[in-house]
Design a protein that fits this description.
The structure holds two protein chains of two kinds. Chain A is mainly alpha-helical. In chain A, 35% of the residues lie in helices and 4% in strands. Chain A has a domain of 43 residues: Glu-tRNAGln amidotransferase C subunit, N-terminal domain (Histone, subunit A, Orthogonal Bundle), CATH 1.10.20.60. Chain A has three helices and two strands. In chain A, strands 1-2 form a two-stranded antiparallel ribbon. The longest helix of chain A has 18 residues. By secondary structure, chain B is of the alpha/beta class. Chain B is built from 16 helices and eleven strands. Classes of the chains: A mainly alpha, B alpha/beta. At the A-B interface, α1 and α2 of A face α10, α11, α12, α13 and α14 of B.
Chain lengths: 95, 486
């Protein structure tokens, strides 16, 4: 199974990930190898097998819907590149 | 002082024979002297460590504290540490100062453990050699031209070189056990959910589990005692109360049955490693254990299952890195918002992380979901059922941790498939959520080899006890890498 340049470009757009033209050949070839590896899965008979939802076969616990977090946005926003009036800023884009 | 185990140092600290400040300074001195050649640390938190050591001494002086009070440890750089850079080995988080502590970090801090620094790792824990780190590879103290294993390679190298008494790690497909094997230390991955994942940068949420890299099983028990248990902040943390792991080690030996999967002794396993595993099994036989050959029908599919499930979950988890709220941001102008994201992520992530995101995107995309993701989760169920069936007849499963000793830096980095196949024996346990560990069991060409033990869900007591008894009968875990005695 091999992925071509167009396949990879489509995946890059879906994943919002830029691959440089120099990287493209290597990425396509290595992804193709990985797809070949995982294609082994097709050989297994999984008729009537229930897909795993949790390794210990338990459901997630629920909690009451109440507010437990305090507002710490100023603290959290210290990690942002650009903030103005408590808002995250993105570079100017022309759409 | 660096020769002693956590258990021994805890006694000396308690009896005030040594102080945490002396101990911490000693380890900081070792790090500053030895780490230039090993690159095991991304960040060294010298001032915080000395302040924590001072506080620990005050606590010990008043007769209080836990067995970890005053013990210098290191955290894998995947654990969020308040006020300290948490890079996850990535350019993407090179500028990220965590605003909070992971539960594991908070619990160890509360117990009085001293944090020496944050250890090197494969980028976002994606790798088996520590070579995908943005900060360059960590080196194996046994032979600096070889890898320490990965992804918790820095933690393994730090403990092996006696630059920390113990370290935290995370294991998604083998990332604690394989570096433990390569570096000659004890690595424990508990049951999925035994330890809270809150504050651990997420890779594959249904597989990720935090654990320990220490010199001995007893030290692992001491650390896990503090780290484990329910957590309101992680809905996947199990509600089960934590048994007394250290007490379990002191229980008398019971004659357990150990299952040895015939499929673990395949053509991939180096014959020298195979011999050491057989020797280790005979140690258990001498202790009175029964060794029984078993067969895990679907385990050969664990690598392909993993390389669907883990990248799928990773592609989803890593979608949060957008360059807006935190993390790396591409410079310059972008034509539109999508291009801004693409440039930021293209520049912020390294090659292996990009491959996994793209692979995950591929297996989750329309038309492929059933053939890959759903099929993988079905086979994962089969693999898990194989283990459950085996545990009806055996108490533990034993086998190799890795097919070979540590390989050379550069040997596999350009061949992802070869790198992935290095994890063939470790991937099964996390797929089934099982606890597992690796303990040193010999040397091949002067490089350490690990014995892997896998137990049923929540059997950490049994696992730790078996490893502890093995370590009473053998001295592989006491070997120091040449050049790191002093």
């Amino acid at each position: 199974m091999s992925l071509n340049r167009e396949d990879v470009e489509k995946l890059c757009l879906l994943a919002r990930l830029k691959i440089t033209p120099e990287e493209m050949t290597d990425v396509a070839s290595k992804l193709s190898d990985i797809v070949t590896l995982v294609n082994q899965l097709r050989t297994a008979d999984t008729t009537e097998v229930v897909p795993m939802a949790h390794p210990l076969d338990i459901a997630q616990r629920l909690r009451e819907d109440k507010v437990t977090e305090s507002d710490r946005h100023e603290h959290y926003q210290q990690n942002a590149s650009m903030v103005e009036r408590d808002l995250y800023l993105v570079p100017k884009v022309i759409e | 002082m660096h020769e002693a185990t956590i258990a021994q140092l805890a006694q000396e600290l308690k009896s005030r024979k040594i102080s945490s400040q002396e101990l911490t300074k000693h380890f900081l001195e070792r790090i500053s002297r030895l780490d230039a050649d090993l690159n095991a640390f991304i960040t060294i938190t010298q001032n915080d460590a000395l302040a924590q050591a001072k506080a620990a001494d005050a606590r010990l002086a008043s007769g209080e504290g836990t067995p970890l009070t005053g013990i210098p440890i290191a955290h894998k750089d995947i654990f969020c540490t308040k006020g300290v850079k948490t890079s996850c080995g990535s350019r993407m988080l090179d500028n990220f100062i965590s605003p909070y502590d992971a539960t594991v970090v908070a619990r160890l801090k509360q117990a009085g453990a001293v944090m020496l620094g944050k250890t090197n790792m494969d980028e976002f824990a994606m790798g088996s050699s520590n070579e995908t780190s943005f900060y360059g590879p960590a080196h194996n103290p046994w032979d600096r031209d070889t890898v320490p294993g990965g992804s918790s390679g820095g933690s393994a190298a730090a403990v092996a070189a006696r630059m920390a008494c113990g370290a935290t790690g995370t294991d998604t497909g083998g990332s604690i056990r394989q570096p433990a094997a390569f570096s000659g230390v004890t690595g424990v991955k508990p049951t999925y959910g035994r330890v809270s994942r809150y504050g651990i940068v997420a890779f594959a949420s249904s597989l990720d589990q935090a654990g320990t890299l220490t010199r001995t099983a007893e030290d692992a028990a001491l650390m896990l005692q503090i780290m484990s248990g329910p957590d309101e902040l992680d809905s996947t943390a199990l509600p089960n109360l934590v048994p007394d792991f250290c007490k379990a080690l002191k229980d008398p030996w019971e004659n357990i049955t150990i299952g040895v999967p015939d499929n673990f002794f395949d053509k991939d396993l180096d014959p020298n490693n195979a011999q050491l595993i057989r020797d280790a099994l005979s140690v258990f036989e001498k202790l009175g254990a029964t060794i029984k050959e078993i067969h895990l029908e679907n385990i050969h599919l664990s690598v392909p299952v993993y390389y669907v499930v883990a990248p799928a979950e990773a592609s989803s988890n890593l979608s949060r890195f957008d360059g807006i709220r935190y993390g790396y941001r591409a410079e310059g102008e972008s034509g539109n918002l999508a291009e801004f994201y693409m440039r930021t992520r293209g520049e912020g992530f390294g090659a292996e992380v990009k491959r996994r995101i793209l692979m995950g995107t591929y297996v989750l995309s329309a038309g492929y979901y059933d053939a890959y993701y759903l099929q993988a989760q079905k086979i994962r169920q089969l693999i898990s059922q194989d283990f459950s069936r085996a545990f009806e007849d055996v108490d533990l499963i034993a086998g190799p941790t890795a097919p070979t000793p540590a390989f050379s830096i550069g040997q596999k980095i350009n061949d992802p498939i070869q790198m992935y196949l290095n994890d063939i024996y470790t991937i099964g346990a996390p797929l089934a959520g099982l606890p597992a560990l690796s303990t040193p069991c010999g040397l091949v060409n002067n490089l350490p080899v690990g014995l892997q033990l896998i137990g049923p869900h929540l059997s950490e007591e049994r696992l730790l006890k078996a490893a502890h008894y093995f370590q009473q009968e053998t001295d592989w875990h006491t070997l120091v890498p040449p050049g790191y005695f002093e």
